[in-house]
């Protein structure tokens, strides 16, 4: 099969915009809890009516400050309640939100604000304000910088008190379904980010259809989620809209170090994350079990969970497996679910391939991961597994209202309600990306006979060895990153006689491993030559090589004394490798492998 369509469950909107979701919620369910807001150590509920009133008051403040319909406003902050409040207030004022990662450099901020022609910008902290101030001279259109932590929201709310409800309503309803809602700058692994224009209908139609399609996840009584991914990323942004559309209670936190404490307090029914977080949960669980002398029990429990999940699809587990699973549920699985807050039944994963083994493990312990696939240009999801239509190891079927096609060269193409309008002020890039309504993703994939998509690699990242062998690095890299000691890795070998790999270590996982091996703690630079460490990584490489042919397998590897990070410029904010940067920075290490 090379094309599959999922019919829309909700007809596309012909009038209105994103702010109608807020208005409808306040009118139809004013007392429903829409958010739980972090205040100190407590979570304070915010009803649909309260959120509507706060959005309206802030929108009036923006109007009073001179913001006009269609104006672009930057938003640079960590994931917090005010992010969502400001986002919807910008839309209620008829303006366009331009998100900026709070970790962005002054140069990145300057590019996004100047290219989008932003007239104002919300920032979270004084440090963010200082970053904008560095480049203010290059931003002639930027008139306002509002600092959230300096009380900007309250100040604007007070200033807007004189704006009438009728004036606000006139402004709120200016935008229609096809009008611009946001410009999201793709983090990009090469070159300057492109501004991706997403419309009100992109979000509204996709959210309304997804609420219906994922009713078992978002439609259950007291459905809730704790958002901890950056809202500057389209994945979290779509979930923000989905929660408002589905009247799902949502919380915000950016404190990933204390995430387990927040999950325990918030008790979400579903979460969304990237595969690296699920890998960390699994690996840290292994470490804790081994440190407590219960490694054998945990591994047996993990194997049972995977076997139990694998048996669910062909017809169900047998009696012996059911008994083992029930025993381990008491001893192990219930504790893992408790660590996630005790109520999580589903997790939505995106951003990178998860891997079938991890998918089966989590389903086996009672937390089904619904893996999906999409890009900024597809308003996040293009495909997703659902509780009713689930195939672990795939990224699911097209979401309702979307068609996926696999071209002759294997590239995944997408058409439907989720596809972006254009790249801002970049017609040549738009023409290159969209042909006859089909968005060319740049990813390679396969559709099975039931319409489930499997991503096999990235078109531009295909490595061609000196012997002419085409190798998709993602297959090897995803498998390697699943090892508890490996943080990041990059497969190399273009125009070389064989495939090799650069590997970085997870410094949080190292102490437990050293203790287990009875070794002294040393700086990472002094550890990488350790024979036992080399053997451990070699074992991970051998396991990854099982997924490919001999000609595609990794023949040599090099452990680096530093990690790939966003701060060093080797990862994008969504944790994708900047391969060109890594190749340039570690050219000597790559040369040494050959």
Question: What can you tell me about this protein's structure?
Answer:
The model has no long low-confidence stretch (mean pLDDT 93). Strands 1, 17, 18, 20, 21 and 22 form a six-stranded antiparallel sheet that branches. Strands 12-13-14-15-16 form a five-stranded mixed sheet. Strands 3-2-11-10 form a four-stranded mixed sheet, with helices on both faces. It is 40% helix and 22% strand. Strand 13 (346-349), helix 15 (356-365) and strand 14 (368-375) form a beta-alpha-beta unit. The chain is globular and about 70 Å long. By secondary structure, it is α/β, with parallel strands linked by helices. Helix 1 crosses helix 2 (48-64) and helix 13 crosses helix 15 (356-365). The chain contains 22 helices and 27 strands.
Helix content: 25-40%
Average of pLDDT? 93
Number of helices: 22
Low-confidence blocks of residues: none
Please describe the biggest sheet, giving its number of strands, its sense, and whether it closes into a barrel. Answer: 6 strands, antiparallel
Percent of residues in beta strands: 15-25%
Tell me the structural class.
alpha/beta
Number of strands: 27
Amino-to-carboxy terminus distance: 41 Å
- Our Rg estimate from Cα atoms comes to 24 Å
Shape: globular
């Amino acid at each position: 099969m090379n094309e599959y369509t999922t019919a829309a469950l909700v007809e596309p909107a012909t009038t209105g915009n994103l702010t109608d979701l807020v208005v409808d919620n306040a009118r139809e369910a004013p007392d429903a809890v829409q958010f739980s807001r972090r205040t100190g150590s407590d979570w304070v509920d915010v009803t649909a009516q309260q959120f509507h009133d706060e959005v309206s008051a802030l929108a009036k403040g923006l109007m009073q400050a001179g913001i006009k319909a269609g104006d672009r406003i930057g938003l640079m902050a960590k994931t917090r309640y005010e992010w969502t409040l400001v986002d919807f207030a910008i839309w209620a004022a008829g303006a366009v939100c331009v998100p900026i990662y709070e970790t962005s450099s002054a140069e990145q901020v300057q590019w996004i604000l100047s290219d989008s022609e932003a007239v104002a910008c919300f920032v979270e902290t004084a440090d963010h304000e200082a970053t904008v101030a560095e480049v203010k001279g290059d931003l002639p259109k930027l008139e306002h910088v509002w600092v959230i932590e300096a009380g900007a929201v309250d100040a604007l709310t007070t200033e807007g008190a004189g704006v009438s409800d009728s004036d606000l309503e006139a402004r709120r309803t200016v935008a229609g379904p096809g009008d611009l809602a946001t410009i999201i700058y793709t983090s990009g692994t090469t070159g300057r980010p492109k501004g991706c224009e997403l419309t009100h209908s992109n979000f509204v139609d996709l959210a309304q259809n997804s609420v219906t399609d994922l009713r078992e996840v978002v439609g259950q009584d007291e459905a809730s989620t704790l958002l901890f991914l950056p809202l500057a990323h389209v994945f979290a942004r779509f979930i923000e809209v989905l929660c408002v559309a589905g009247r799902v209670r949502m919380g915000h936190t950016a404190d990933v170090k204390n995430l387990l404490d927040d999950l325990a307090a918030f008790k979400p029914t579903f979460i969304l994350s990237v595969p690296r977080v699920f890998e960390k949960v699994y690996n840290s669980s292994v470490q804790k079990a081994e440190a407590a002398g219960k490694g054998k029990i945990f591994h047996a429990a993990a194997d049972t969970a995977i076997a139990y999940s694998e048996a669910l699809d062909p017809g169900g587990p047998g009696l012996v497996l059911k008994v083992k699973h029930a025993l381990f549920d008491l001893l192990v699985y219930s504790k893992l679910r408790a660590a996630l807050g005790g109520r999580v039944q589903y997790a939505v994963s995106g951003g990178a391939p998860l891997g079938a083994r991890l998918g089966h493990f989590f389903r086996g312990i009672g937390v089904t991961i619904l893996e999906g696939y999409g890009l900024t240009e597809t308003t996040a999801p293009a495909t997703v597994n659902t509780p009713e239509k689930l195939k672990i190891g795939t990224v699911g079927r097209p979401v309702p209202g979307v068609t996926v096609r696999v071209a002759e060269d294997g590239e995944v193409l997408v058409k439907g309600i989720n596809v972006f309008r254009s790249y801002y002020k970049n017609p040549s890039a738009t023409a290159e990306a969209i042909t006859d309504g089909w968005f060319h993703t740049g990813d390679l994939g396969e559709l099975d006979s039931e319409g489930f998509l499997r991503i096999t690699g990235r078109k531009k990242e295909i490595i061609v060895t000196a012997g002419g062998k085409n190798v998709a690095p993602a297959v090897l890299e995803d498998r390697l990153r699943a090892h508890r000691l490996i943080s990041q890795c990059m497969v190399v070998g273009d125009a070389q006689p064989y495939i090799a790999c650069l590997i970085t270590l997870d410094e949080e996982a190292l102490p437990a491993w050293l203790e287990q091996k009875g070794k002294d703690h040393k700086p990472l630079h002094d550890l990488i030559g350790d024979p036992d460490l080399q053997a451990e990584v070699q074992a991970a490489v051998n396991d990854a090589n099982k997924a490919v042919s001999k000609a595609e397998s990794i023949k040599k590897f090099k452990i680096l004394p530093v990690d790939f990070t966003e701060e060093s410029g080797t990862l994008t904010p969504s944790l994708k490798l900047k391969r060109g940067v890594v190749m340039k920075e570690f050219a000597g290490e790559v040369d040494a492998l050959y």
